[in-house]
Amino acid sequence: MQDLNQDQPGQDSLIKSFLRMVHSADGDFEAIRELTEAASDEKSLDLMIEFLERHPQAKKAFEQQICLGEVNLQALHLLPKNTLGYCYADNLITNGFSPLKADEPKNKYQYLLAHIIETHDIWHIITGCNTNILGELQLESFYVGQLYATRFWLALVAKNLLKVVIDDIEKSTQYMDAITRGWIMAKQAEPLFGIQWNLFWETPLDEVRRSFNIILPDS
Amino acid sequence: MQDLNQDQPGQDSLIKSFLRMVHSADGDFEAIRELTEAASDEKSLDLMIEFLERHPQAKKAFEQQICLGEVNLQALHLLPKNTLGYCYADNLITNGFSPLKADEPKNKYQYLLAHIIETHDIWHIITGCNTNILGELQLESFYVGQLYATRFWLALVAKNLLKVVIDDIEKSTQYMDAITRGWIMAKQAEPLFGIQWNLFWETPLDEVRRSFNIILPDS
Question: Which InterPro entries does the record match to this protein (chains A, B) (predicted)?
Fold first, then answer.
């Protein structure tokens, strides 16, 4: 995260970065970075932090800047196959990814972003959202439900709907189903922000999901 | 509806009319007209018609070009207060609206649009969606579920999400709830396209809703 925007986001910069996302291939990190910046105004970040801190776990996470720290994927991959740690590591290894890392946060705004980045792939596993466009969209909708005033994730939902309007209208049902599933799951679930996930590496994934009331849709 | 676009919609004209909607006040009819035109390409209209005609009621409506015809609001307003006819008339009279009319359709494409225009305010009543922005959004989502390959209504959903990203992020929960409610209601309901609504003016609204499995959300 660079400098914060002023109280209100720049409408022009939000629309510009939104349109860049519409025209970009999925996973264009430069476009994502630009949208992150345009969506990071003080007003919405304050709203999110105030909302999240109502839950003791997130309050503690902000105070102590709880981080995942170094992750040894090879070691996690030796855990039993039903554990969170194994599933997380296996997913990253299979896709050739490394754990996402953020710069060390210096304030709450930076911690908010750093924690989201660092735990993003864990949220994929926990929510059962895979990394194709429908899984990403379901997870984006889940983030809106869990983070509340997030311009970034809601812009991604809107962007994906506009892309399907333009290019792929036959898929509208699948897209709307994904949004609805993510939204309902987020409302049923306990707040996930601020969880110290490395305490759960050895716990069966099913048990972790149950403890946070993550209810996977039937299909 | 003017001339049809070619097989694929013009990406540029769709984005241009989408952005015009983002910058317009709600209910800007010129902006809506422009989006209708940009979203009316042969490919998506054919997909919708093929989808709708799987149901005998819509097939018959397309064949016979079933229309609502002249509506006498004052007469409907004399019906018992629990009837569809009274509720429809009362809503229009209270808001100072007249029944929406479309040009006489000359082909299936024009009938598709004409029927949607003519029945729009009835769908508001049947679905219990009021005419504020949340009610409109819920109904837009309902249309996507009922019409399937509709670039127009899905673009409106995306437009409203982008507007809330820019101007009103505190309302993200209400917006996502509205989309989810409309979507779930559309999937539960029987197909509404092609219903000859004037046969139901004297039927209690609750009974009409039951007969088409319209289940109102709790809140």
Answer: Coq4
pLDDT digits (tens, 9 = 90+) for B161-199: 999 999 999 999 999 999 999 999 999 999 999 999 999
Burial tier of B71 (Cβ tally within 10 Å: 0-12, 13-18, 19+):
buried
How close B165 comes to chain A (CA, Å)? 5
3-state class (DSSP) for residue B105:
coil
For B210-219, how does the pLDDT look when each residue is reduced to its tens digit (9 = 90+)? 999 999 987 4
**Dist. CA A176–CA B181, nearest whole Å:** 11
> Tokens at residue B33, please?
């007209």
Report the 10 Å Cβ neighbour count for A16. 14
pTM, to two decimals:
0.95
B176 with A140: CB under 8 angstroms? no
The angle subtended at Cα A33 by Cα A21 and Cα A86, nearest 5°, is 100
Nearest CA to A76 out of A59, A90, A60 is that of A90
How far is C-alpha B33 from the chain's CA centre?
A: 14
For residue A204, the SS3 value is: strand
Query: Which residues of chain A does B158 touch, with a Cβ-Cβ cutoff of 8 Å?
Result: 158, 161-162, 165
* ipTM greater than cut 0.90: yes
Q: Which of B169, B181, B219 to mutate to test the interface with A (most CBs of A within 10 A)?
A: B169
Residues of B in contact with A39 (CB under 8 A): 165
Q: Go through A34-70 and write b for each residue having 16 or more CB atoms within 10 A of its CB, e for each that does not.
A: bbbbbbbbebbbebbbebbbeeebbeebbeeebbbee
Domain ranges across chain A: 8-211
